[in-house]
Specification:
9-stranded mixed sheet, 4-stranded antiparallel sheet, 417 residues, 12 helices, alpha+beta
Length: 417
C-alpha cells in the first residue's frame, strides 16, 4: 500500500473506535501540553537572559568595596584598564531630607553616579539629560530621578519614610505621578538641586535586567563628585559599587587583574573584596530557569509514557481483532514490512493528533499561567520538538506489537477465528 492509502486506512480505524482512540490521544496530549508549556517558558527565559546579556555589556565585572573612591582614584584605575573599557562608580544609597516648594518629600534615597552609569543595564527612557563630565568636574548641584510606570503588575519597591510625617509631607513616588519635576528646583540636605533628567523605568514585563541591576526603592541620582563633596564628614561609612565593562570577554581577565592590583595598591594586600564576572550571574540565571522547570518536564515524561502504553495496548487490540485481515493481506502478497508499516502509521497518526491537541492545551496554559504571556514568542524548535516527542513515543511503543503482527504466518492468521 502507498502512504496515502496507509493514512486513509489508519484514519478510518481511528474513527471507528473513537473512545479508545480518544483516551490514547488525550494521554499523549497531556504530556505534550506539559512539554510545550515547559519548553516555551524555558525558551523565553533563555531569550530574556540573552537580552539581559545584550544590555549589560560584554566582559563586565562587578565589585563592591567598603571604601569610597575619589575622582583621582577613579582616573588612576581607568588608566590601568584595557583600552575602550567603561568604568562606573556608584555610591551606596542613603536617606536624606528634601523639599519641593512647600512640600517635604519622603520615601526616597540618594545615590551618587557617574555618566558611565549609562554604559550598562541602562533600561530607562530619558527625559531631559543625564549627567555629563562637566557636571562631575564642577560638582554641579543637579539631579536625575526615576519615575515608575503605572501598570497592573506593580514593581515591588521598599517602602520607608525619610522623616516624620507632617501635613505638608508627600511620598516621592506619589508626587512624580502628578507633577513633572523636570527643570524644577528641589532642596536636598539644605542645598538647592536642579532636576535635569527624568528616568522612566521599564515596566516589570519589559525589564530584562537581572535583579541585582534593578532598583528596589525610589531613587534620586546626583553626580558622584557632588556626593563625594557634600558627604565629606561621613562618606567613609559608605560602600562603593564598581562596574567595569571591558567590551569583550577576551579582555575580562586583564580587567580583573587590573582592578585587583589597584585595590591592593590603594588599601593594602590584606584588603578584602569580591570581583564577580557578570557572565557567572547569567549562567546561574540559566541554571535557575532549568531547575525551576525540571519538575514539569518529569511530569510530562510520565504522561508521555502513559500515552505510549495506551498506544501499545490499542495496537495490540487492533492486531488481535484484525488477525484474519493480516492473513489475507499476506496471502495476497503483502510483505512483513508492509504489515509493520501499516500499524506504525496508525500509531503515528494517534501521536500526531495528540501532538496537535497538546500544543493547543499548552498554548492555553501559557495564556492563563505565564506572568508575561504578551511577551511570549514561540520558537520553531519548540513546535518541532513537541511533534517529534509525540511521534517518537508513538513509534517506540507501537514497534513491538507491529513487529509481532508482521511475524504472523499467513496460514496461521487465516485459521484465526
Amino acid at each position: 500500500m502507498k502512504l496515502p492509502d496507509l493514512i486513509s486506512t489508519g484514519w478510518a480505524e481511528i474513527r471507528s473506535h473513537k473512545m479508545r482512540s480518544f483516551l490514547s490521544v488525550f494521554a499523549i496530549a497531556i504530556g505534550i501540553a506539559t512539554f510545550f508549556y515547559t519548553l516555551s517558558m524555558l525558551s523565553q527565559r533563555y531569550r530574556d537572559i540573552d537580552r539581559t546579556a545584550e544590555i549589560s555589556g560584554k566582559g563586565r565585572l562587578d565589585c563592591r568595596i567598603e571604601k569610597p573612591l575619589s575622582m583621582d582614584q577613579y582616573r588612576q584605575l581607568q588608566r590601568t584598564l584595557p583600552e575602550g573599557s567603561s568604568l562606573a562608580l556608584r555610591t551606596d544609597n542613603y536617606v536624606s531630607q528634601a523639599t519641593y516648594k512647600d512640600l517635604v518629600l519622603t520615601g526616597f534615597m540618594i545615590e551618587g553616579v557617574l555618566p558611565s552609569f549609562q554604559d550598562s543595564a541602562f533600561a530607562y527612557e530619558l527625559d531631559g539629560r543625564f549627567f555629563n563630565w562637566k557636571d562631575i568636574e564642577n560638582k554641579h548641584r543637579v539631579a536625575v530621578m526615576i519615575v515608575y510606570p503605572r501598570e497592573k503588575q506593580e514593581r515591588e519597591l521598599v517602602s520607608f519614610v525619610n522623616n516624620d510625617n507632617g501635613p505638608n509631607s508627600v511620598e516621592m513616588k506619589e508626587l512624580v505621578k502628578r507633577v513633572n519635576l523636570l527643570n524644577q528646583q528641589i532642596t536636598i540636605d539644605g542645598q538647592s538641586f536642579t532636576v535635569v533628567g527624568i528616568l522612566r523605568a521599564p515596566t516589570v514585563a519589559n525589564d530584562f535586567r537581572l535583579p541585582q541591576d534593578q532598583e528596589d526603592m525610589q531613587l534620586i541620582f546626583i553626580p558622584y563628585s557632588t556626593w563625594y563633596d557634600i558627604t565629606a564628614p561621613w562618606r567613609n561609612y559608605f560602600e562603593t559599587r564598581i562596574r567595569i565593562v571591558s567590551g569583550s570577554e577576551n579582555k575580562l581577565n586583564r580587567a580583573h587583574s587590573a582592578l585587583s592590583s589597584f585595590l591592593r595598591s590603594q588599601f593594602g594586600s590584606d584588603f578584602q573584596f569580591d570581583i564577580r564576572p557578570f557572565h557567572e550571574r547569567l549562567q546561574l540565571a540559566r541554571q535557575r530557569a532549568w531547575r525551576d522547570l525540571r519538575a514539569m518536564i518529569f511530569i510530562g515524561l510520565i504522561a508521555m509514557i502513559a500515552g505510549g502504553i495506551g498506544i501499545m495496548n490499542i495496537t495490540m487490540v487492533v492486531i488481535f481483532s484484525r488477525t484474519r485481515e493480516i492473513g489475507i493481506r499476506r496471502a495476497l502478497g503483502a510483505t512483513r514490512l508492509d504489515i509493520l508499516v501499516q500499524f506504525l502509521v496508525e500509531a503515528l497518526l494517534l501521536g500526531l493528533c495528540g501532538a496537535l491537541g497538546g500544543m493547543v492545551l499548552g498554548y492555553l496554559a501559557i495564556l492563563h499561567m505565564a506572568d508575561n504571556s504578551r511577551q511570549m514568542t514561540f520558537s520553531w524548535w519548540v513546535v518541532a520538538g513537541s511533534i517529534g516527542i509525540a511521534l517518537t513515543t508513538s513509534f517506540v511503543f507501537a514497534l513491538y506489537p507491529a513487529y509481532q503482527a508482521a511475524k504472523l504466518k499467513p496460514v496461521d492468521a487465516l485459521k484465526y477465528e
